[in-house]
Amino acid sequence: MSAQVIDGKAFAAKVRDQVSEHVKLLKVEHGIVPGLAVVLVGEDPASQVYVRSKGKQTIEVGMHSEEHKLDIATSEADLLSIISRLNSDPAINGILVQLPLPKHLNEDLVINSIDPAKDVDGFHISNVGLLGTGQRSMVPCTPLGCLMMLREHFGSLSGKDAVIIGRSNIVGKPMAQLLLGDSCTVTVAHSKTKNLKQVVSHADVVVAAVGRAEMVPGDWIKPGAVVIDVGINRIPAPEKGEGKTKLVGDVDYDSCSKVAGAITPVPGGVGPMTIACLLANTLTATCRANGLTEPEGLTV
Ligand code: NDP
Predict the structure, then answer these.
(1) Does the beta carbon of 212 sit less than 6 angstroms from any atom of ligand 1?
(2) What number does the ligand 1 atom closest to the CA of 275 have?
(3) Among 212, 229, 271, 272, which residue is least crowded by beta carbons within 10 Å?
């Protein structure tokens, strides 16, 4: 059996189309243009690629995009003052501070200085608390994208056994809250989990968010299970030539796709959905800020 490939790229294009349509309506009917500001401190090459891609896609869906590129030596006070300015800027509905920040900046302090209503990454402590208590919040983009793909695949997730490997604040924990919210029975595994193979082998849904290349082999997967691979790992690819590299996920795609019912590829799975959900969150934040109805299916 070969698993159905969950095409995150195509799904993300559909989400972007929906966002784009709604942005047009907002402009025509209310004269509103959603605005997203992305703040990048330093010159981390991966972060620069993400920020460029976010800015490009923001413009493509008809939103206002601002990039604030700051020197690596920017002080905490200066960064907080920029965020404070963006918090009170009526042209900005979403603020994203690209992580990781340089070591001298306190990430928690910086994230919690963002107006929670503009916190389109969903990392502010207020949004974390709202999500954890089942209240309306801004939902972190990566788990939101995973949930959208799972809902599309299953219809209802109620009663499914879900195992999440990884307990980070940006993926594992919010993913667990979302799947609980959809009435899954949720297990969150981590580096201290015993018998991980046995834990994973019972799951109808496996979400791998570990950061270890191809860690989950096919013989851990229950036949027919749905596998969502969040991992992005760059490894050497000598078959492509000397010094070449390639991206792989946290699951071993070849063996897992022989057993799973459906699986997300890397690249082309969760990654594109993350940026699409950032745009969806910016639209949601804009609708809420203006007391307008939110488009259906773009948030929980
Ligand atoms: P973190 O490093 O913050 O968390 C990794 C988690 O994996 C931790 O909870 C850790 O456990 C757990 N872990 C580590 N080793 C093992 C092991 N051997 N067995 C079981 N669990 C283990 O990573 P993130 O959550 O930020 O990211 C995870 C992956 O997802 C990365 O590859 C990252 O690049 C990718 N990612 C992809 C995104 C996308 O858009 N597709 C967005 C965000 C992340 P413990 O807590 O005990 O240390």
Answers:
(1) yes
(2) 40
(3) 212
